[in-house]
Amino acid sequence: MSEALINWFMVTLGGKVGKEFILFLISMVPILELRGGLLAAGPAFLNVELAKAVPICVIGNLVPIPFILLLITKIFDWMKGTKRLKPMVEKLEKKAMSKSDKIEKYEFWGLVLFVGIPLPGTGAWTGSLIAALLGIRFRKAFPAVVIGVCLAAFIMSVISYGIIGGIFG
Q: Does the global pTM surpass 0.85?
């Protein structure tokens, strides 16, 4: 699914905007986030220089995070007040909280690792949602997410530019 979304961005926006803007947008989108951005940036897809791609993807991934940490619980509370949106919000909350045990137990470092280790269902969006639902304060959650995104950037750079780049580059 991630590869299909990356391809959609490249086909839809390719030639209309620069590669860097495509990476920035991919990195902002839930599910894809920085991981998808750095995969798209690598030699197998857009072939953007690593030193240029990493900061673009990190910043793109971090742009939505303060809004999630500060506003998502208020938005969810409002959405739960509507008949149509309540089931969707409850499903999202349930799914996010099903992954919350390590974050709840280890808080800061649990959040860093949850965001930083590139596994399905992890990342800055989900980590921030869980942190907000657990009531972790912004001044503790945001730095943990930033460190996690930087860890993910390192890991994904090795995968995208080292391993995949070695095969396709």
A: yes
